[in-house]
Design a protein that fits this description.
Elements: E1 4-9, E2 13-18, E3 23-26, H1 32-47, H2 53-76, E4 81-84, E5 87-88, E6 90-91, E7 99-101, E8 104-105, E9 110-112, E10 127-129, E11 142-148, E12 160-166, E13 176-180, E14 195-197, E15 204-209, E16 217-224, H3 231-243, E17 257-262, E18 264-269, E19 276-281, E20 296-301, E21 306-307, E22 312-313, E23 316-319, E24 323-326, E25 329-336, E26 342-347, E27 367-370, E28 376-378, E29 386-392, H4 399-413, E30 417-423, H5 428-437, E31 443-446, H6 449-454, E32 462-466, E33 472-475, H7 479-492
Parallel strand pairs: 6-21, 29-30, 30-31
Antiparallel strand pairs: 1-2, 2-3, 4-26, 5-18, 7-17, 8-11, 9-10, 11-12, 12-13, 13-14, 15-16, 16-17, 18-19, 19-20, 20-22, 24-25, 25-26, 27-28, 27-31, 29-32, 32-33
Helix pairs in contact: 1-2, 4-7
């Protein structure tokens, strides 16, 4: 006879004991029923010898196949977390870029389409006609421009939304009025009220609501060029747009706008040492965040205001395989709101990092400058002993403790361990002064963004411990941990 019974441990774990001394542990109490169903079925099979026995076995196989497909998702259900994207976010191009919304004088309802960035072309530009103009009472001059937005329902002007500007000449006594054809139907009477742009306005935000996706919003920030700065640049832009925009009459860069595309949003995931920021990037500017061809997921350490391209992730196989990494852990996305309002994900403990260096493999070959900013060293020169590479900045709150342990490591284990410290972000003369005045005995060098990216460094400080021949043995270890490892190794010997 086949017999079995359940044992409840700590109120959460369920252990199945059988005659054959096999055991299975279920970690979530909500799966008791599934366990009971499977075991009851096995017992039934072993005790029944009826004509329908084989039919029941076939049914059981189907049931077990279904449970096998569902169980992995169910087991993760307790670990799935949700973050809401309510924070402002910027990529590294936001503050550096100089996108321009050029403004052209309005001469007739028939206007030419916009040629991206004024690229010269021999082909004549297509024309389209504005159907209805807004009430522009009080406006003494009129101009128009274009904002890129792909969420509009019409294909008119290849995704560019048309703007009308009344009183565009930036007069003290005439407030500029901005009219936006939000639905891209060339009718300015059904788009709401005008946006006032007084002379001293720092910027204005224009929002576009996606016509078919609830909550999908794309925002653009427009600002004017200061008339007392970048004189040569403004002259260059004047000449450029006058030459390369077909028959349109360029009003001048002083009356145009700088454009910042607010196509990112962020959330902070708080979980102790694994706390970090998550950013969503709308790569095709439609107010949605689930387009696998264009949209991206970014990560950054807590407190960072800028998301760097070094830590961005594409959708590997559409939304079915959306994932990202932080602190050498892989997180799988189970649900992402198309409008980017929330995301659900879990830490996949069985997944291997695609970016982390592999234990047992050699670290990449690289060169680095010493703190004198003149001498170049090759890392392969340190291959005859073990090697500890320590990346840091002087902002490290534990810098004094770490440097003290590094000195101890060098003093006791110099015969078998090389130490190379690589600083990122601090002035080399400050580092060189520390090297000389403090008589630092180990190698001090300078890191850079390329080198940090090579080691997939997300936050400082961090360290990499290698055996001989530069074979990696430990990732993300502090000097204190290296000391403990070396002490254990020396005791074994």
């Amino acid at each position: 006879m086949f017999s079995c019974y359940f044992v409840l441990v700590d109120g959460t774990n369920l252990i199945l004991q059988t005659d054959s001394l096999m055991s299975v542990v279920f970690f979530h109490s909500k799966f008791f029923f599934i366990a009971y169903l499977i075991i009851s079925t096995i017992v039934f099979i072993n005790n029944q010898q009826t004509p329908c026995f084989y039919k029941f076995v076939a049914m059981l196989k189907k049931l077990l196949s279904l449970l096998a497909a569902i169980l992995p998702f169910a087991l993760h259900s307790q670990d799935i977390v949700q973050v809401d994207f309510t924070e402002t976010a910027y990529d590294e191009r936001y503050h550096k870029g100089k996108l321009i919304v050029p403004i052209f004088r309005y001469t007739s309802p028939e206007i030419e389409e916009y040629e991206k960035f004024g690229a010269p072309s021999k082909k004549a530009l297509d024309k389209f006609t504005l159907k209805k103009l807004p009430d522009m009472t009080g406006c003494v001059d009129t101009a128009y421009g274009f904002i890129y937005y792909t969420g509009a329902p019409s294909n008119t002007n290849r995704g560019y939304i048309t703007l009308l500007i009344g009183n565009y000449r930036r007069s003290w006594d005439k407030i500029a009025q901005l009219y936006v054809d939000r639905n891209n139907n060339l009718d300015f009477t059904d788009d709401g009220a005008a946006i006032a742009v007084p002379y001293f306005t720092e910027f204005i935000d224009i929002e576009f609501n996606h016509p078919s996706a609830e909550g999908g919003v794309y925002k653009v920030r427009l600002s004017r060029f200061p008339m007392d700065k970048d004189v040569k640049y403004r002259q260059l832009m004047d000449e450029f747009y006058q030459r390369n925009q077909g028959n349109k009459v360029f009003a001048g860069i002083d009356y145009s706008f700088k454009e910042n595309r607010m196509n990112m949003k962020a959330a902070t995931y708080i979980n102790g040492a694994d706390t970090f920021r998550i950013g969503l990037y709308d790569g095709n500017y439609d107010g949605l965040y689930t387009n696998a061809e264009f949209d991206l997921i970014y990560v950054a350490k807590q407190g960072d205001s800028i998301f760097l391209d070094d830590y961005r992730f594409v959708f590997q196989d559409g939304m079915k395989e959306a994932e990202f990494e932080w602190n050498f852990k892989v997180y799988k996305v189970t649900e992402l709101d198309p409008a980017g309002r929330f995301m659900k994900f879990f830490w996949d403990k069985n997944a291997q990092s695609r970016r982390a260096l592999k234990i047992g493999k050699k670290i990449p070959k690289f060169e680095f400058y010493l703190t004198d900013a003149k001498t170049v060293k090759k890392i392969k020169k340190y291959r005859k002993k073990g090697l500890y590479v320590y990346f840091y900045s002087l902002e490290n709150p534990n810098i004094e403790e770490d440097t003290a342990v590094l000195r101890q490591l060098h003093t006791k284990y110099d015969n078998c361990l090389n130490i190379v410290t690589l600083n990122y972000g601090d002035y080399y003369k400050t580092l060189n002064a520390i090297k000389v005045l403090d008589a630092v005995p180990y190698t001090m060098g300078i890191s850079n963004r390329r080198l940090n990216r090579m080691f997939n460094i997300e936050q400082l400080p961090t360290g990499f411990l290698c055996r001989k021949r530069l074979r990696l043995s430990h990732i993300g270890v502090t000097p204190k941990v290296v000391w403990e490892l070396m002490e254990k190794g020396s005791k074994k010997e």
